[in-house]
Amino acid sequence: MSKGFNVSITPEDIAEGEDVDFEEVKEYWNVYKLKDGATLKVKLVLMGVKRLKKHNPDGSPIYVIQSQNIVRAVEVPKELYAKPKPPAMKPV
C-alpha cells in the first residue's frame, strides 16, 4: 500500500477520470464510546468511484471516491436528552 504521496489533483483531473463500477462486499459499522456516555455507530457508504488518469510515484492508480457517512447515536444516557418539542405541523 502506498503512503505519503503528495500528488496534486485538479477539478479537471476529476472531470476526466473514468467512472468505475463496484459492488458492496462488506460494509462495517465502527462503534465509538464517547466520554459523555453515548455510543456512536458510524459507517462509510461508497456512492461512486473514479479512477484518474494520474498515478502515484510508485505507479499505482489514483482513485477518488464519493461517499456518505451514516451516523447513529445509540445507548445515549437519559440526562443528555432535551425536552421533546411539539410537532411543527398540526395533524390533518
Tell me what the structure shows.
This protein is mainly beta. The protein has a domain at 18-75. Helices cover 5% and strands 40% of the residues. It contains 1 helix and 4 strands, in the order H-E-E-E-E. The protein has one helix at residues 11-15; strands at residues 18-19, 30-33, 39-55, 61-74. Strands 1, 2, 3 and 4 form a 4-stranded antiparallel β-sheet that branches. The longest helix is centred in the N-terminal third of the chain and has 5 residues, at 11-15. The protein is elongated and about 55 Å long. It starts with 10 loop residues before the first helix and ends in an 18-residue tail after the last strand. The model has no long low-confidence stretch (mean pLDDT 93).
**Order of helix and strand elements from N to C terminus:** HEEEE
User: What would you call the structural class?
Assistant: mainly beta
Number of helices: 1
Largest sheet: 4 strands, antiparallel
- Which value, in Å, is the CA radius of gyration? 21 Å
Query: Could you give the count of β-strands?
Result: 4
Look at the structure and give the mean pLDDT: 93
Helix content: under 10%
User: What is the beta-strand fraction?
Assistant: 35-45%
Unreliable parts: none
Distance between the termini: 58 Å
From the structure above, extract its key features.
mainly beta, 5% helix, 92 residues, four-stranded antiparallel sheet, 1 helix
